[in-house]
Amino acid sequence: MAPSNMAHFPTNDSQLAHAQTSPQVPSETSSDVGPKESPPATFNNEKDQASLGDGLGDGTDDRIEITEDDCYDELGFCFTESKKWLVLTVIFLVQVSMNFNTSLYSNAAKGISQEFGVSAQGARCGAMIFLVLYAFGCELWAPWSEEFGRKPILQLSLLLVNIWQLPVALAPNFASIMVGRALGGLSSAGGSVTLGMIADMWEADHQQYAVAFVVFSSVGGSILGPVVGGFSEKFLDWRWSIWIQLIFGVAVQAAHLIFVPETRTTILMNRIAKKRREAGTHPNLYGPDEITPFRERFSAKEILVTWMRPFKMFLTEPIVLTLSLLSGFSDALIFMFIQSFSLVYTQWGFGTVAQGLSFLPILVGYFLAWFMFVPAIKRNIKERHDKPDDEKAQYESRLWFLLYTAPCLPIGLIGFAWTCSGPPLHWIGSSVFAAIVGIANYSIYMATIDYMITAYGPYSASATGGNGWSRDFLAGVLTIPATPFFTNIGGKQHLQIASTILFAISFVLVIAVYVIYWKGPILRARSPFAQQLKDAKDDNGGRRVSFLPTGYGSQPGSRRGSRRGSRMGSRKASYAGGAGSRGNSTGVGHNKQVQKKLAQLQQEQSKAE
């Protein structure tokens, strides 16, 4: 049975009703958890206590579920800084590789068109189908990284992507290229898994530098493709554009396998509990995933629910929907914008290599935005520290710098529109405005991702999956109409008019940034899952929970109503009990909910009498 110093709490209404009639004794509260709360409910006899002691409620199971308090020093949050940044550096390369795959193919399109006798537009379908299915791949892989762990899911994704490069590189016909590209896109886990790892290793107050680093890898990887592609297209056969992707992919997969450990908190807790059982120190200690049988966790219904989690969050969480659409439409506009580069710079006589290098100003814009975010992050950290109880400071302040950088999107687009007409204007003018567009793209992605990781913590992979889906899906859909858009609109000034249309659309998007900033608290209040996670975090002393206990409401994922969810799942009611446990070891947060429920029952009883 559980040690006697373990905190015990009723888990359903009938037990609460029983506890209501039982005498109560004062409880000791650690000095670091603030004012003393109301005393917890106690029980008249050992039988009552035994039925609730393990939090499972069946009276026969003496297994004890490990909590984060019991092993916090062994979780990703307590990796050394050097280890965290080694992991993040490898993840940076993994993310660059994923986005590199989306863009380098475009430099093979001309060779594909010539070899297989398809039109230039038809050859671009390989880029389109990869991006569209990449969007769904992000959504489908993300929730499984929250169930099985980040490392096996990312390894499997990288392996499959590398395998599906082969039918493209060795394609005997165009159909093989389309099949390989489609399966490669669907197999890509995308940034949702890599961004989820940030929530595994950093608490919300310290994550922003890590988010800024990984976001740069995402946007930068897309620009690296055409830069490298210019050289491969000029000096190599088109198939080398695919072989280069495969070589890069195999290298980063090997680095990930060797240098990156598992970071997902619940998976680490399972391993720690098993290790302590085998050592004989805590024979009844189990991890959060070991409590519920595998067959129950992964029934057909649970698999469907897990797979649908990112889509459900995208449609039912206003934060996810709004920020994802903002980021998605912004990225789609920029994708359309860079499709004009070959048309624009051909006017100045740029060859294949020079056209590839013309993307470097956007990369310069990404670097500038990244460096500009450093003082903004420092300011944001100070504001959160000075105003710990101000929700706007904790959440919306992460969007503050975007208020100043978002206007770079329409400024860059309108400036590019009227400096891209060719000689006698110098090409440097359009390059400067391209860099300004790069500043906006990085800033929008950085701010929206940081906000969502903060709001959704352990489920940030599913939340940011919606962001990735909207960006990749919209970019993929616009791949085919992009060139006709710039060549068929506006007559002689078709490049200027088309870019001006993008400016007009971007102006509306920038207005949306300010609306989201000022109306953020309303959006969060209408996002039920985000609110449940916030409540759980507040009751957990301000630290993230590793998963959402059922007591906080129904989560958009698996294990609803499971035995795992019947107790506080993060840093609460630890088996270690008193001072040896971190944070809220006496279970004050859970006790607060119990006392609130007892008060409600008392009011109902008074009304009934």
Automatic annotation (TrEMBL):
InterPro entries: MFS, MFS_dom, MFS_trans_sf
Residue span(s) of domain Major facilitator superfamily (MFS) profile: 87-524
Pfam families per record: MFS_1
Gene3D superfamilies in the cross-refs: MFS general substrate transporter like domains
Biased composition (Basic residues): 560-570
Stretches the record annotates as Disordered: 1-59, 535-609
Swiss-Prot/TrEMBL keywords: Membrane, Transmembrane, Transmembrane helix
Residue ranges crossing the lipid bilayer per the database entry: 85-106, 126-144, 182-202, 209-228, 240-260, 318-338, 358-378, 399-419, 425-453, 473-491, 497-517
Coarse class of the protein's main subcellular location: membrane
Biased composition (Low complexity): 596-609
Bias (Polar residues): 11-32
Location of the protein in the cell: Membrane
Membrane-topology descriptor: Multi-pass membrane protein
PANTHER family: MAJOR FACILITATOR SUPERFAMILY, MULTIDRUG TRANSPORTER, PUTATIVE (AFU_ORTHOLOGUE AFUA_2G12550)-RELATED
Name of the protein in question: Major facilitator superfamily (MFS) profile domain-containing protein
